[in-house]
Amino acid sequence: MSYTQEIEARLKTLLAGTPAGEAAILIREIKAIALESYRNGQKAGAPKTQKRATAKVAPAKHYQR
């Protein structure tokens, strides 16, 4: 199930007692808001993380007995 389908299903459950015409309008508008928010997030991109400096590990020494 896609994200928008999941939103729509949850909204239908929440709006069960609301007249069908009003529920349809509310669902359409909320889905549009969610899609706009998703696109804004995509446009902004994920936050950039700084790479940590990795410590160089000395090669293991094999001791002979």
**What's the N-to-C terminus distance?**
63 Å
What amount of the residues lies in strands?
under 5%
The secondary-structure class comes to mainly alpha
How many individual β-strands?
Answer: 0
> What's the average pLDDT?
83
Please work out how many helical segments DSSP would assign.
Answer: 2
Rounded to an integer in angstroms, the radius of gyration calculated over CA atoms is 26 Å
Enumerate the spans where pLDDT stays under 50 for 5 or more consecutive residues: none
Order of helices and strands: HH
Q: Helical content, roughly?
A: 55-70%
For the largest beta-sheet, the strand count, sense and barrel status come to: none
Q: How do you describe this structure in short?
A:
With 65 residues, this protein is mainly α. The protein has two helices and no strands.
List the keywords.
about 55% helix, elongated, about 60 residues, mainly alpha
Tell me what the structure shows.
- The chain has 65 residues and is mostly helical.
- Helix content is 57%, strand content 0%.
- The chain has helices spanning 3-14, 20-44.
- α1 (3-14) packs antiparallel against α2.
- The protein is elongated and about 85 Å long.
Write the layout of secondary structure elements.
Elements (H helix, E strand, L loop, with lengths): L2 H12 L5 H25 L21
Helix pairs in contact: 1-2
